[in-house]
Description:
The protein is an alpha/beta fold. Helix content is 32%, strand content 25%. The chain has 3 domains: 2-96, MurE/MurF, N-terminal domain (Udp-n-acetylmuramoylalanyl-d-glutamate--2,6- Diaminopimelate Ligase, Chain: A, domain 1); 100-327, Mur-like, catalytic domain (UDP-N-acetylmuramoyl-L-alanine:D-glutamate ligase), CATH 3.40.1190; 335-490, Protein-Tyrosine Phosphatase, Chain A (Alpha-Beta Complex), CATH 3.90.190.20. The chain is built from 15 helices and 26 strands. Strands 11-10-9-12-8-13-14-15-16-17-18 form an 11-stranded mixed sheet, with helices on both faces. A 6-stranded mixed sheet has the order 19-20-24-21-22-23, sandwiched between helices. A hairpin with a 2-residue loop joins β16 (263-273) and β17 (276-285). The longest helix is centred in the C-terminal third of the chain and has 16 residues, at 475-490. The radius of gyration is 25 Å and the shape is globular. The protein starts with a strand and ends with a helix. The relative contact order is 0.08. The model has no long low-confidence stretch (mean pLDDT 95).
Amino acid sequence: MFKLKDLLEKMEYTVLRGSDEMEVSEIVNDSRKARERSVFVCIRGAVADGHKYVPDVVKKGTRAFIVEEDVEVPEDGTVILVSDTRVAMARMAAAFYGYPARKVSMIGITGTKGKTTTTYMIKRILEEAGLKVGLIGTIEVLIGSERIPANNTTPESLLLQEYLSRMVKAGCQVVVMEVSSQALMLHRVEGIEFEIGVFTNISADHIGPAEHSSFDDYMDCKSRLFRMCRIGIFNGDDIHLGRILEGHSCTVETFGMKETDNIYAKDIRLIQRPGYLGTAFRVSGDLDFEAETDIPGRFSVYNSLCAIAVASHYQVTEQNFKDALKAVRVKGRVEMIKVSDSFILMIDYAHNAMALDSILTTLREYRPGRLVVLFGCGGNRARARRYEMGETAGRMADFTIITSDNPRYEDPEAIMDDIETGIRKTQGRYIRITDRKEAIAYAIHNGRPGDVIVLAGKGHEDYMEVNGKKLHMDERELIQEILEEDQRNKG
């Protein structure tokens, strides 16, 4: 049990009624989870306002409320007014779990692209050096051997503090986490002091009614991390770096391709062997060694440099760096799946035109015989994305396979019609195959020597959303099934 005043020790607040001596056993912001001895934090969300659910919560026996405006409660209730209930919830959660972030070395990574891959690279390097590392990100949360699928890039503050507490109990010494602009805007990481904050890059993404009102707002949210960390590590080549640095309170280090960066790369080579693509380069500046990663593309050099710059603040040897970068794999991020020695097949999460353009541009540098892309678009989302992805594929790929991807409540054929409309603006060749397994089988069976085939859009996801249901579907399993069926048919 906790007294409210102990949970609110890092907040300015006003007791409107009742007493901050009231004892509570849990913090909730979901009215469905409220019960006796809960303290209910009234959050104003994009869809609902928690203040309006107070009558429902009262019926469940809850008597403690954190609010931004007065609410009616029974005589034995306590109402505490704060200026921002999201900030209050984050700080209360940290107090509730005993400030777990203070017991580990916290690394927070923000940026438009590269966050996920870079977190895995950092984790692998530090583990090579013998450290126990927890991870919180877009794909999953990793606590020791436990893997928890992620719903958000950065969890809500209550869940985030619970995960951090579990990591402390599991013996983690370092936690590396993706910190989204949404998380910074919604104060999910409020009260956490990061040892290292990282900026990968920024481009116009996540701008819209449910996200950021403008690119300037997006940059402002990203920059908040650098008022919450001791050391800031930045992509020195990003044109918006000056704006991100505004108001920073951390020491500044940079990585990039210039000799003025603390860590920089030179002699970049694209590695190509039968069934394999990779990247090699020389790490220069504060460190000096040759590195190679099995993740193809120049962007992987930036991710590697970023991870090296972060890990250099820990006791890491040159061999640790080399071994980790060569071994690291990230599920659904330019993930190569071996099916043939004559052509390359990979899975990537590219699910919008910008990401698709980026991955196809990267792979074009390897001069493939043909660049083949397979993708669909999600239903009940902006139709413009379909036209844009279709046009990008038609312009960038030699051949496109249009298929289904999370149709949700829409007709898959109608979604594919929109993609086809985009492709027809180009001279790009394509085929339509609605069933994703059949589409993948077509890609494999028609692969030619020197081809690079990209299964785009699903990435790490292991499901297909159809009519309100999440049906299990993992592209890795589909590929294995296709190969096994081919083997049986040969026999």
